[in-house]
Amino acid sequence: MALKATIFKCDLQIADMDRHYYQNHLLTIARHPSETDERMMIRVLVFALYASEQLSFTKGLSSDDEPDLWQKSLTDEIEIWIDLGQPDEKRIRKACGRAKQAVLINYGGKTSDSWWQQNQKILQRFDNLSVLDLPETQSKELAELADRNMQLSVTIQDGHSLVSSDAGNVDIHLEKRK
Fold first, then answer.
1. Tens-digit pLDDT profile for residues 16-42
2. What is the DSSP string of 5-60?
3. For residue 97, how many other CB atoms are within 10 A of its CB?
4. pTM of this structure
5. Residue 84, beta-bridge partner list
6. Cα–Cα distance between 137 and 20 in angstroms, integer?
7. Could you read off the pLDDT of 131-155 as tens digits, one per residue?
8. Within the chain, how many helices (H) and strands (E) appear?
9. Domain region containing 77
């Protein structure tokens, strides 16, 4: 018998002073059985960083044809394709070919550094790709905020993000690799 996804609810309040975006989102997040709290919370963080009315979670780990998050236009064109982790070059090429903008959030400590060293030259040819690195200490702290019913507040200013909940605060600074 296959394991089912665990459902998380999140009341996400976003104050993004860099983009002048102030909104409250009620999110229902399906965490795949193989997904960790760390990865799920990174998805929530990324939602806050790129939030818009059109941004949505996808099937994620359950599908090879979809990113973790995407923003589509009203004509169903993919405006932003967002993946997490260390995908292979073929997947990145697909993302860059299908979307106006592709974003990769790289995390995982030493494995993310090794992946970047191996793929840095290949990734330079994709003009519409951004690669951001989330330090391991910050992703681990973010995972500690995970709860089945979360109330999170994310404040974004000058490229820094502060994620707050009753469980604590995490200061996030993504390093721009590309």
1. 999 999 999 999 998 888 889 999 999
2. PEEEEEEEEEEETTTTEEEEEEEEEEE-TT--HHHHHHHHHHHHHT--SSEEE--G
3. 11
4. 0.91
5. 105
6. 28
7. 999 999 999 999 999 999 999 999 9
8. 4, 11
9. 6-176
Instruction: Give the chain's mean pLDDT.
Output: 91
Q: 71: how many CB neighbours lie within 10 A of its CB?
A: 20
In a domain, 72, yes or no: yes
Angstrom distance (rounded) from CA 69 to CA 51: 10
- What's the pLDDT at 64? 66
* Phi, psi at 10, each rounded to 5°: -140, 125
Residue 136 forms part of a structural domain = yes
Within-domain flag for 1: no
CATH classification at residue 66: 3.10.640.10
Number of domains in the chain: 1
List b or e across 133-163, with b for residues whose CB sees 16 or more CB atoms inside 10 angstroms.
Answer: bbebebbebbbebbeeebebbbbbeeeebeb
Given pLDDT bands bounded at 50, 70 and 90, which one contains residue 61? low
Pairing assessment for the beta strands 78-84 and 99-107 based on DSSP bridges = parallel
- Write down the H helix ranges in 76-171: 89-98, 110-123, 136-143
